[in-house]
Amino acid sequence: WQNLDKAIASSNDQFDFEVRWHLYFLNPSAPKEGVVKKVHYMEKFGPQSEIIKARMAELFRGHGLDYDVDGLTGNTLDNHRLITFAGHQGYDKQNALVEELHLGYFTQGKYIGDKEFLVEATKKVGIEGAAEFLDNPNKGVQEVYAELEKYSDHITGIPYYVVCDSSDGSMEKKQARWPNPEVFARAFQQPTKSM
């Protein structure tokens, strides 16, 4: 997400950007109480998990951040409910919330399913009513699943980016592993070309 932010900042004078986050469950059956990240990664990727962690640490260092594999990972339904809720208060707030959630989860060992962390992130970016919204476990669930059905049909992995030209409705969907800002900038120039 940091590379996307850099690319947008460098192209802001040429385009009118609107970033929207859509939902995707990497592990829909993950437990709500969470599991230790390190253990989960080892179970999922085996010895390859050490190589993946080293690569992620290198990517984060390139942005001046420390990649943190401490803490828990698990069910992201509340996180997705909250991101959808934030979008109703403005896509700028939604984008700011996703950044806070990413920073907490990837660099501070925060658990993405922890209500306290989720509410704290919403307060930082000025989203109102999040605690009350999360108190009702049914609020936003239908909207989350409708969005998943609409947008995640052909996704095989993340991150997955869609670049749209709103002037003519053209759209390019591309799956890419952490593209650099230059790749994004090229996609902005010619959204129907591959990233």
Automatic annotation (TrEMBL):
SUPFAM superfamilies: Thioredoxin-like (SSF52833). InterPro entries: DSBA-like_thioredoxin_dom, Thioredoxin-like_sf. It holds the Pfam family DSBA. Residues 2-168 form the DSBA-like thioredoxin domain. It comes from the Eukaryota. GO terms for molecular function: oxidoreductase activity. This is DSBA-like thioredoxin domain-containing protein. It comes from Coptis chinensis. The lineage of its organism: Eukaryota, Viridiplantae, Streptophyta, Embryophyta, Tracheophyta.
